[in-house]
Amino acid sequence: MNREDFGSDFEWGVSTAAYQIEGSHDVDGKGLSIWDVFTSKKGKVRNNHHGNTACDFYNCFKGDIGLIKDLNIPNFRFSISWSRIIPNGQGAVNQNGIDYYNRIIDYSLECGITPWLTLYHWDLPQALELRGGWTNRDIIGWFSDYTELCAKNFGDRVNNWMVMNEPSVFTGAGYFLGIHAPGRSGLRNFLPAIHHVTLATSSAARQLKAIIPHANLGTTFSCTHIEPQAVTERNLLAVNRVDTLLNRTFLEPILGMGYPQNDLKVLRKLDKYIKGNDEADMAFDFDFIGFQNYTREIVKASFFTPYLGASLVKAEKRNVPLTDMKWEVYPQAMYHVIKKFDAYPQIRKIIITENGAAFPDIVVNGEVADEQRISYLKDNLQSILRAKKEGCKVDGYFVWTLTDNFEWAEGYHPRFGLIYVDFDTQRRIVKDSGKWYKEFLTRKA
Ligand SMILES: O=C(O)[C@H](O)[C@@H](O)[C@H](O)[C@H](O)CO
């Protein structure tokens, strides 16, 4: 398998997110985000870790972008911290924040690296959370204003934009299960969050298109391949309900298909929040859709899970190879999800905007021999190539992630990076997987 096999216009990159790498959570005028507040509460995150310093990217970005260059990675995905440029989420702008992101963009371009910018990667300004956050319909306007500011300040040099990162995860974990920031739970929070995030995604996209007409616009979705524990009618119906929630609820309204309410009854409760022209306003013709896949889920029917009637069969109970996140290593999942979403005629282009794995990396003589990660990446690329050879419109791949970083509720324990970080000294060590990715991107067939 060579880079050429994927075609010369295939986009190769690496993905990151602001809260997971930047640190400097309260300097130079930055306002607090929901993750700054969530991690300050004991017991919310493993080992009570937080992102106050993280990978200190705020200060070390030149070094890390230099490493992206050294690894010959042409595209760099990063996110903007809303509260770093608008401390209260609305109103006064923090010019220090704008200047910081201009430095990242300019230095990336100076290094010959193309910036791919994510507008929202989970770090909502706390000041907006206090006004209801994603459960308050006014957030559609707040997010649109933030988008306008970003487009006007960065649109002259950034051509590749992603509006949202994995809405199913940050609304599910943050507004239904309460295990991520802001720590809210229940349908009364989850349902309005679903609807407002969907409307905000398309209204922001229209805003971007109006200000940067030539921009390459996308948005990203978490997705997973789902199979029944045993092929029974009850389990197959359960698979369909889980698939509807995880893979279709946030995507299909954007594609102009409305919410898949026939396949998951609880989604009919969204009608309470759907107003006026919402159905039409939820749709937007994106240039690409970013899909993020890491594994597969095995599902069985269950009376005990309200609304879903299904439960996930934990991978660690299934005697299968696992990552440090206890996710099954199942690279065929990537093939299946691409085939699934390729079938949507409304999707013009698929880009895998995240894929990667956490493994227990150790430093030996200044090196990190992460063979498992190399195999994981290779096998997932094989799956992508297989789908591509079958005609699927998949045109890009971004590794999650550049440096080990703050893995949300798991803190710094899971290491996903191509580059090892010693969080005591901020020393970086390019892992063997980073060297492999470089060799793969550089080697001529
Ligand atoms: O998309 C996500 O879930 C997040 O974008 C990343 O921030 C995670 O760190 C990664 O997926 C590994 O879990």
From TrEMBL:
<dbReference type="InterPro" id="IPR018120">
    <property type="entry name" value="Glyco_hydro_1_AS"/>
</dbReference>
<keyword id="KW-0119">Carbohydrate metabolism</keyword>
<dbReference type="InterPro" id="IPR033132">
    <property type="entry name" value="GH_1_N_CS"/>
</dbReference>
<dbReference type="InterPro" id="IPR017853">
    <property type="entry name" value="GH"/>
</dbReference>
<keyword id="KW-0624">Polysaccharide degradation</keyword>
<keyword id="KW-0378">Hydrolase</keyword>
<comment type="similarity">
    <text>Belongs to the glycosyl hydrolase 1 family.</text>
</comment>
<keyword id="KW-0136">Cellulose degradation</keyword>
<protein>
    <recommendedName>
        <fullName>Beta-glucosidase</fullName>
        <ecNumber>3.2.1.21</ecNumber>
    </recommendedName>
</protein>
<keyword id="KW-0326">Glycosidase</keyword>
<dbReference type="InterPro" id="IPR001360">
    <property type="entry name" value="Glyco_hydro_1"/>
</dbReference>
<dbReference type="InterPro" id="IPR017736">
    <property type="entry name" value="Glyco_hydro_1_beta-glucosidase"/>
</dbReference>
<dbReference type="GO" id="GO:0008422">
    <property type="term" value="F:beta-glucosidase activity"/>
</dbReference>
<feature type="active site" description="Nucleophile">
    <location>
        <position position="354"/>
    </location>
</feature>
<dbReference type="Pfam" id="PF00232">
    <property type="entry name" value="Glyco_hydro_1"/>
</dbReference>
